[in-house]
Design brief:
The protein is α+β, with helices and mostly antiparallel strands. The protein contains eleven helices and 21 strands. The chain has a domain of 231 residues: q2cbj1_9rhob like domain (Jelly Rolls), CATH 2.60.120.620.
């Protein structure tokens, strides 16, 4: 966790249990595979930072000799006994059945929605690994970087939707559900996924003044993000200047709310494994989005902020909350992690009132923005026609979905293998065995709620 918060909007988010334990099992198995493979001088592909539990078991059967494979299987069996079980999560309603003409990522996502439930964390990571990433270059980047962006874009007087928004609707439903499950009060118009992004010190000035939701999807080493404690770029001219103070954040399988629109930040390369990060943010021109664009974004699970009319009263305001939930209402209970809560996994807060009401709404709902400014380049891709030629640059090795392994009762966790839980993973594995966790209860619903409240300021 961040020791000293940058401000009241900057914080690390607690992962829900159904995400945390799925992620923890993947991390421990990946560490075990790295350890055993290094002992026999075998290399682990960097794309396995996005591999699921079954895929890691399959790759172990291909990479490891019989003796090391048996130890890996024993360790996997022990994890299966010790880690708390998680129920499946209800997915958003299906937009349409999988069709042959769809992109592989959209076809897979539509299949998940058609199934109706499963592991949200595994589904998102599986779909993300199939997306068509494109090479783009920013002013604060030394070379081309791979990324996927969808949702709203804005550049000067031009606003609209990225072309990939329509093409990958089912994918966006899963991505947006993940964002909502991490922070139900978050507002965003655009998502971008970066691959091995390395960026110099910069501020996302083209974003709206809302925090960014930054979600690490991969299990990589290093690849930290540094963010300055104060606003404004540090002095780089002649003469002496004090060193800037900030926080170095591990984004591997973690989530943060960060004010990247005002605080300088940068990213470093990962040393082991591909680094994939999802960012959900608000474009600077969100107030100019048409009603049809806003409705389209809401249908796909985005939560764009609403605009306050200029002539609204500042003494007494009327707040209309219109929540069109086409996602999943998840009731999470845990005695060891966080209080029971009900998350509405998609919604929109319509605010009518004066500036005082907006301040109140921001304190309540915590709207949010982006780690990499994509508005300008998304527009350039649209008008140049490059966006029509989707090139699948990032091509991780896809593995089988399920593997049958005969597990042996080990009686212990990989004795003599010290690298299975390295310190850099920052995971408190001892707490897993000690915590008393209630089974997660999940309920799938479609709600339409309209509630009017009177607020006197």
């Amino acid at each position: 966790m961040i020791e000293n918060a940058l401000d009241d909007l900057c914080r690390e988010l607690t992962l829900p249990g159904h995400i945390y334990y799925d992620s923890l099992e993947e991390l421990l198995l990946l560490n075990a595979l790295h350890c055993l493979a290094a002992a026999v001088e075998r290399n682990v592909p960097p794309s396995l930072s996005m591999a699921s539990t079954n895929e890691l078991c399959y790759m172990a059967s291909r990479l490891l000799p019989p003796e090391e494979l048996e130890r890996f299987q024993e360790y996997a069996a022990a994890l299966g006994r010790l880690l708390p079980g998680t129920d499946t999560i209800g997915f958003p309603p299906m937009l349409g059945p999988p069709q042959d003409g769809m992109h592989e990522a959209e076809f897979t996502a539509a299949g998940y929605l058609q199934t109706g439930s499963g592991s949200l964390w595994s589904a998102v990571r599986h779909v993300v690994s199939l997306l068509p990433f494109r090479e783009v270059k920013r002013q604060h980047q030394a070379k081309l970087q791979q990324q996927f962006s969808a949702g709203a874009y804005g550049h000067r007087g031009f606003v609209g939707l990225c072309k990939q928004t329509e093409q990958f609707g089912s994918v966006l439903c899963l991505l947006n559900m993940l964002a909502c499950s991490l922070h139900s009060g978050h507002a965003w118009t655009t998502v971008v996924i970066t691959v091995n992004n390395v960026a110099g010190l910069h501020v996302d000035r083209q974003n709206a003044p809302f925090c960014s939701l930054v979600i690490g999807l991969s299990h990589h080493c290093q690849g930290h993000m540094w963010i300055q404690r104060s606003r404004g770029m540090p002095w780089t001219g002649p003469g002496l200047a004090p060193a800037a103070a900030g926080h170095r954040l591990d984004v591997s399988a973690k989530a943060y709310l960060l004010p990247t629109f005002s605080h300088p930040h940068c990213t470093e390369p990962s040393t082991v494994g591909d680094r994939l990060v999802l960012i959900a943010y608000v474009i600077g021109q969100y107030e100019s989005l048409s009603s049809s664009h806003v409705c389209k974004l809401q249908d796909l699970g985005f939560c764009p902020p609403r605009v306050i009319p200029a002539g609204a009263s500042s003494t007494e305001s009327e707040i209309e909350v219109s929540v069109h939930v086409r996602r999943v209402a998840v009731s999470l209970r845990s005695r060891g992690l966080f209080r029971a809560t009900t998350e509405l996994c998609a919604g929109c807060l319509a605010i009518r009132g004066g500036p005082a009401d907006m301040a109140m709404a921001r304190r309540t709902c915590r709207p949010t923005g982006d780690i990499v400014p994509v508005a300008l380049f998304a527009f350039e891709l649209e008008v140049s026609g490059i966006a029509a030629d989707a090139r699948h640059i990032y091509t991780p090795e896809r593995l089988v979905d399920s593997v049958g392994l005969t597990m042996v009762d080990p009686g212990g966790l990989m004795p003599g293998c010290a690298l299975l839980t390295p310190a850099q993973s920052c995971r408190n594995t001892a707490a897993v065995a000690e915590a008393v966790v209630t089974r997660w209860e999940h309920r799938r619903k479609e709600w339409t709620i309209t509630k009017r409240m009177r607020v006197t300021t």
